[in-house]
Amino acid sequence: MQLKLVSGNSAGTVTAYYVLQLSSKGNKHDEIDFEFLGNLSGDPYILHTNVFSQGKGGREQQFYLWFDPTQDFHTYSIIWVPHHIVFLVDNTPIRVFQNSESIGVPFPKNQPMRIHSSLWNADNWATRGGLVKTDWSKAPFTAYYRGFNSIDFPNSSPSPSSKSFSDGNWEAKELDTKARRRVRWVQKNFMIYNYCADLKRFPQSLPPEC
Asked: Annotated catalytic, 31?
């Protein structure tokens, strides 16, 4: 999906683009999130990512972006295949969530999902932990979506293509060297929160997939 985010004072707002379990019954839902946390004019957006499986989330990673997402459209992609989930911004991978079922971590692969998009008020937490509230005098708040595209991967196993992930083989079981280098670049320079490094939140031990 291509998005252009709310410009100006967007504090308190969240622009969301996410994949959610088709049925919302019960407490075992799956979800894959891109959420863009608004901010005061001149302060950067925070890109908030999360993965829920069997009702368990809490797998947040947050990033600043290396461009102004309010000035033009940028492409935000989710590659969801049985062996991993990859989040991409303008075809640059920023996060990989591996299938760790072998060590008891649920992975969202058994329930049908659908795409959701929304723009909502979350001023109880979105901007500086809820310290900055939505300024309703700036309403209406407008985000723009265009160019949605989906590609079906009908096989559960990676395709035999000789192309690498960086060359567009999205079914590749592992990221190639170039893609891994891009992930490291983003996480070194733009990541501002990683649940896998939060020892205050997990004082006994980090989640097993970490």
From this structure: yes
Cα(201)–Cα(87) distance, integer angstroms: 24
The rounded radius of gyration (Å) of the Cα atoms in the chain is 17
Respond yes or no: is residue 101 known to be catalytic: no
154-170 residue pLDDT tens: 665 655 666 888 888 88
Residue 88 CA to residue 143 CA, distance in Å, equals 19
89, 65 contact by CB (below 8 A): yes
Catalytic residue among 35, 60, 101, 174, which?
35
d(Cα 175, Cα 179) in Å, to the nearest integer?
6
**What whole-number distance in Å separates Cα of residue 129 and Cα of residue 12?**
10
For residues 19 and 65, what is the distance between their CA atoms, to the nearest angstrom? 21
Query: 117 forms bridges with which residues in the sheet?
Result: 17
Tell me the two tokens of residue 157.
Answer: 């196993």
Nearest-angstrom CA–CA distance, 188 and 58: 21
